[in-house]
Amino acid sequence: MKVKTPVYKKQRLTAEVVDLSYQGNGVVKVDHYPIFVPNTLPGEKVEIVVTKVTRNFAWGKLTKLIEKSPDRVSLDDMRYLQTGIAPLGNLKYEAQLRFKQHQIQELLEKAHLDNLQVAPTMGMEKPYGYRNKAQVPVKLVKGRLETGFYKRGSHDLVPIENFLIQDPVIDQTITTVRDILRKYRIQPYDEESGRGCLRTIMVRRGYYSHEVMVVLISKTKQIPHVDDITREIVAQVPELKSLVHNVNSKRTNKLLGDVNHTLWGQPTINDQLLGIDFTISPLSFYQVNPQQTERLYQTAIENAGLDGSQTVIDAYCGIGTISLAVAKHAKKVYGVEIVPAAIQDAKKNAQKNGITNIEFVVGKAEEQMAKWQAAGLKPDVLIVDPPRKGLGEELIEATGQMKPAKVIYVSCNPATLVRDIQRFMEQGYHVTKPIQPVDQFPQTTHVESVTVLERTGE
Ligand code: SAH
What is the pTM of this model? Predict the structure, then answer.
């Protein structure tokens, strides 16, 4: 059935941009029907051409910027928008922070929770060069080995040297490694034919320790000239502490395989968060913006109101970053996490820091909560930091049974946060402080926040 849409392909329009989508694209409306136009901002008058039409929305391309937004910053390099490295790179930082605050407000309004306050987003002083980790695909482009980033929604590599939001030492390291790989004529892996050797370069650098880890991820078990390549990387990357070869022979989108060989130095690097030492291996999850992670956790800890007498559960604990930071201020901490390797790291990290009032369990948070409840555990504070899909309903129900006085909700997705707040309200909790967004990913559309929920009436 053919549906009549208010616009057609190749149509040219002059319009005003009325909104900014969650992906950071400007929104033009024709009879309530949205057209998404990359690189346009609310308030701008634009000329566009419609490039794609679907039943519920269309895409357009900017052909002329008639009136500029005062919030626009000039971005010389459009590749940052095209690749999704910095989808908000054309927006002034203060406006980015307002956009993130506003996104939570809007979702609350839609859920009829507009009585809840959202505080201004905590931003960074220097909102660039913050990432402590890079994973960069290696591809053959016009016959040459290139490193860069994929164009949004594709596997077309755009060669890039300055990644804008990564630690500049990491950018430098990637270029150095790229040049060495070129010198030894290493073949990039080709997804279509399944041929070639090198897939990805991963680089991490400790924010406090400055220790650098380079991981070469290959399709093949061997990398040709690996001894020469190792010698040159060691000679040219001054802060190198760990050089690892990871083999990922599967035809998959997954980045890393399960097997690591240390080519030189240590198998891991170290860094600190809130004064606690962490060991980071190639496969560990570790927060990518250390400065803002400290502020995020500090906010969560302050809001938990700990004085050393409380029992705390950290669900979704990963390698125990929040648990270990909280342990100093609590009587006992319980952490649960679904990935066994992360729990192994969490236990090692506890040991390394001499922290003993802590117990880590492998499991699904929702199931483990029910088990703890059955075993009679009575937490005072529950901290949750779930992935984008938010909390399992059973976890919220178990919380209603266990009745911790406070729940601190660290969220990376405002949509599931708002849904879960509603569910917590059904269990006798309500939000007692303005929701605090903390900008963990400047120049991108990600929104992180801390919400405090408390029990009432008992
Ligand atoms: N708080 C940690 C990790 C947060 S990321 C940190 O800051 O480092 C969310 C974590 O939840 C991931 O480690 C993921 O493996 C874990 N996870 C996902 N689903 C889960 C579930 N159902 N139960 C427990 N953990 C889960």
Answer: 0.93
